[in-house]
Each structure stands twice: as C-alpha cells, then as structure tokens.
Design goal:
There is one protein chain. This protein is mostly helical. The protein has seven helices and no strands. It is globular and about 55 Å long. The model has no long low-confidence stretch (mean pLDDT 88).
Length: 203
C-alpha cells in the first residue's frame, strides 16, 4: 500500500470515528438501560474487530505453515496483537455494561466465559512469541493461532447452543433497534473496522 492510499484510509477512518461519535450522541436513549446502553456502540464493534483480527491471524498462521514465508508471520503476529487490544476493550466495556444491566461486574455466562478464554489464548500466543526465538517462535505461535481460532465461532454460537443471559445483537426477527440506533451502530462498526485496518498498516 502506497503512502497516498494509506493517507486516504486514515482520513476516512477519522471521518467515520467523528461521524459515529455524533450519531451515538444523537441516538435515542434506551428505555430500560438508559444512557448506559450507549456503550453497546463501542462494545460490539470492538468484539467484532477482535474476531476479525483473529481471523486474519488464523489465515496468516496457516499461510506461514504452508508457505514458510515471513510476510505471513508478520501479518499473523501483527493482527494478533491488535486483536488482543480490541478483545481487552470488549471485555472491559462488557463488564461495565453488565454492571448496569445485570447488577454485577462479571458473571460466568457462556458468552463471557468463551470470550475470556479466547482472549487468554491469544495472550498466550503473544507470550510464546516473546519467549521463543527464531523458527520455533514462528512455528509454535502459528500452531497456537490456528488452534485458538476454534474458539471464535464458539463465542458467536454459544448463546444459541446454551442458555445465556447475554443478549444477541441479531435475532431471527432482525435487530431490535430503532433506525437511528441502527445507523449509529453500523457507522461505529465501520469506524472500528477501519481503525483495525489503520493499525495493521502502521504495525
């Protein structure tokens, strides 16, 4: 990616972030949760960005094991680091939201538990890269990245397979959001996705 394209990506990301902040402020206040519901516009996009980052890590790890090229390892490791950051934000914002919605900071709900396990697995990926050296570091971390990704679909499907108090963003009847809430959500989703891309370019 050349400098001109990167500059346009950064500019678009900045505009989307500004637009998302304005739209979140203008979005209606939830009748049940009040203003605390607005953390949803950060929590869900960050969880999505973490899952996307771990998918890219999975592809990069697989690419490295198959082709043995350094570029695949660089993509995988960079994406894992960014994914852990987004995952941490998702866990923290989810805990804050849970305090208002459920009255507790944490509960061992199936969605929360599988998300924590996923985050810890990729934290382990980063620790392996810090401890091992050379070819062993790249190979071991690639294997961990591929194995850890198995938890990503489990996080998504957990509230459908098991009883959970965690609300689903999308149900069979669609998204239970007003039009202005949907607009704020999708712009926020686009902004955080573009932020992930910017961080990958910089990293």
């Amino acid at each position: 990616m050349n400098d001109r394209t990167a500059y346009l990506v950064f500019l678009l990301t900045a505009l989307l972030i500004i637009a998302s902040l304005v739209l979140i402020g203008l979005a209606p206040v939830d009748k049940t949760l009040g203003v605390s519901q607005k953390i949803f516009y950060l929590h869900v996009p960050c969880a999505w960005a973490a899952a996307l980052a771990f998918l890219v890590n999975f592809i990069g790890s697989l690419g490295y094991l198959i082709k043995g090229e350094m570029k695949w390892d660089r993509v995988a490791s960079s994406s894992a680091e960014i994914g852990v950051v987004f995952g941490a934000i998702a866990l923290v914002t989810g805990s804050i939201w849970a305090r208002f919605a459920w009255g507790v900071w944490w509960t061992w709900d199936v969605r929360l538990t599988t998300t924590l396990i996923l985050w810890l697995a990729y934290l382990g990926y980063i620790l392996v890269r810090c401890m091992a050296q050379g070819e062993k570091r790249r190979t071991f971390s690639a294997v961990i990245g591929i194995a850890a990704f198995a938890d990503v679909p489990l996080v998504f499907l957990s509230i459908r397979w098991w009883r959970s108090i965690h609300p689903a963003v999308i149900t069979r009847s669609g998204m239970n959001l007003s039009p202005r809430m949907k607009l704020a959500f999708f712009i926020s989703l686009a902004a955080v996705t573009m932020l992930y891309l910017c961080l990958m370019i910089v990293r």
